[in-house]
């Protein structure tokens, strides 16, 4: 059943609508919410929403509860392929929890929070921007790690990144929901303006496993892969930035093991035919972020490398 969360009249006889698909079966009132499209240029979640709805509807008798799917919290942005809300020049994920007496976008944010409030778990799906590609990962902040870690391990991602409190933006959807005791996970994966089907299938499997953990899915589900866990406090993530400008050519694949000093890629000058810079890994580890858009300038982020030794130690602590 498609429901309208909030709507408003727009110029030229158009209507702005944030909508959700509600799938309900059985007697349980437990509710899982899948959210995407807060940033209009992040499309990875569009496939996940479709895929999950398909799988649930094909086996509806296995559902005992409620699944709400919100493909586009920023439908104008999705339609225009812009990160923010067009014409308002606003990043929607910087104005939560919103204000019912505020601007059009603030009012929309407040109605979204109102609709999601009380869910047993919310999964907020994001993609990277057009410049970087990310392996499927859950990002949670250190303030909520105790309440969210078990849920984060369930969604079949490769990596859980625990951010320090200083890097957390209090105006995000996830922060606002977690602050009112609605458990919310943020998933980052893929690249902006694209759909990576492999990652979408991986996360869909994880969402079914999460539903089983919550107790609303009785059908088949995978055993989630064991994620590596990295914490800012352990300095387990190294950043690799360009010193030169030019065209970046990667020489390693995403999510591969590297040693300190291994070549990650090179920056070339197509006019002179010269190689401007050879980029090497700053540590032993695994590449979980890599440059997707080839044009780079001095200071451009090229890669993030996870210190797998520190991450493994952190993962072991979690199981103790």
Molecular structure report:
The protein is of the alpha/beta class. Helices cover 25% and strands 33% of the residues. The chain is built from 7 helices and 17 strands. The chain has helices at residues 44-58, 75-80, 104-116, 145-152, 173-179, 197-214, 308-319, and strands at 2-10, 14-25, 31-35, 65-70, 121-127, 132-141, 159-163, 184-190, 228-231, 237-241, 246-250, 257-258, 263-269, 274-280, 285-291, 295-296, 301-306. The strands form 2 sheets. Strands 1, 2, 3, 4, 5, 6, 7, 8, 9, 10, 12, 15 and 17 form a 13-stranded mixed beta sheet that branches. It has a 4-stranded antiparallel beta sheet with strand order 14-13-11-16, with no helix packed on it. The longest helix is centred in the middle third of the chain and has 18 residues, at 197-214.
What is Rg?
20 Å
Q: Helix proportion of residues, in percent?
A: 10-25%
Number of strands: 17
How many individual helices?
A: 7
- Which overall shape is indicated by the principal axes computed on the Cα atoms? globular
Q: Overall pLDDT, averaged?
A: 95
Model regions low in confidence, pLDDT < 50 over at least 5 residues: none
Distance between the amino and carboxyl termini? 43 Å
* Main β sheet profile: 13 strands, mixed
Query: What string gives the helices and strands in order?
Result: EEEHEHHEEHEHEHEEEEEEEEEH
Strand content bin: 25-35%
Structural class: alpha/beta
